[in-house]
Amino acid sequence: MLILLITERSRQKSDLRSLLKEVGKSIETTVVTTPLAALQALQTTKYDGVLFDIKLPARAYVKVMRTLGTQWPPFAFVTTQPQFAIDAFELGAIDYIIKPVAPDRLELALERMEAKARSAAPAVPLPEDNKIVLRDRDNVWLLKPKEIQSIQAVQNYCKINFGKEHVLIRRPLKLLSEKLAPHGFFRISRDWIVNIGQVEKCSVTVAKNLKVRMNGGMELDMSRRQTLAFRQLFTL
Questions:
Q1: Sheet holding 157-162: strands in order across?
Q2: Domain 2-120 grouped into CATH 3.40.1160.10
Q3: 49, 23 Cβ separation under 8 angstroms
Q4: How far apart are CA 118 and CA 93, in angstroms?
Q5: How far apart are the first and last CA of the chain?
Q6: Taking CA atoms, which of 104, 146, 173, 177 is between 20 and 30 Å from 27?
């Protein structure tokens, strides 16, 4: 997930940037500190979401929004000023977070950004009988979706695991999740998608979340939110 962080703090002193790293390993953050830098960044890169960590009201950034129009990605504010919440939502913000920010609260805002991006541009599912072409520098594989065991987000890449092999491709995890969902794949956390057909066992952790054991013995923790979604989908 690619996030543009707009802040009045220096790149080195941004607490929110550190918190984003804590929330998800697959999140890459670009930090800008002026309206002009924000405009240039948004005109040259497609971001999944924007986080404002600035003092309100922010009239200069409202001008940037009007300049970009429909090109503006989903955005949220992180602030100590609750009195501007109504103004923010009237601008089109999907969330308004009051500091101090808990990791779970920030994660919820990021999930809302992903949901809005998905509704704007739905992915086309992969046909069941079609094979997927995967390649690295030396090899090319032709696989059916059911042959893929799991997918892990690794910075700006996705690591696709199948058999004893793996391939890194430059794709967002959310896009692969949408394309593969009709073929029995489930996103268990911010960083992992698994093929339910290759799950050997599910167990309950001390925190009451689920842990999946894949064919071959690899164990992966399911997030609290996805544990609830999994139970709703797969419980009779």
A1: 165-169, 157-162, 150-154, 192-195, 185-187
A2: no
A3: no
A4: 16
A5: 33
A6: 146
Task: Please give the structure tokens belonging to residue 24.
Answer: 């998800």
Torsion-angle region of 123 (φ positive above 0: left; ψ -120 to 50: alpha; else: beta) = beta
CB hemisphere CA count around 92 (13 angstroms): 14
Whether 160 and 148 have beta carbons less than 8 Å apart is answered as yes
Residue numbers in the chain where pLDDT is lower than 50: 12
Q: To which residue do tokens 């700006």 refer?
A: 156
Which of 200, 193, 234 has its CA nearest to residue 218? 200
Q: Model confidence over 5-43: pLDDT tens digits?
A: 998 866 545 678 778 877 765 788 888 888 888 888 887
205's CB contacts (< 8 A; 6+ apart) are: 211, 221
* pLDDT score, position 73: 86
The domain ranges of the chain are 2-120, 132-234
CATH number of this structure's domain 132-234: 2.40.50.1020
**Per residue in 111-140, pLDDT tens?**
888 877 766 655 555 555 678 888 877 788
Nearest one of 168, 176, 3 to 74, comparing CA atoms: 3
- List own/partner pairs for 137-141 with CB under 8 A and 24 or more apart: 141/165, 141/167
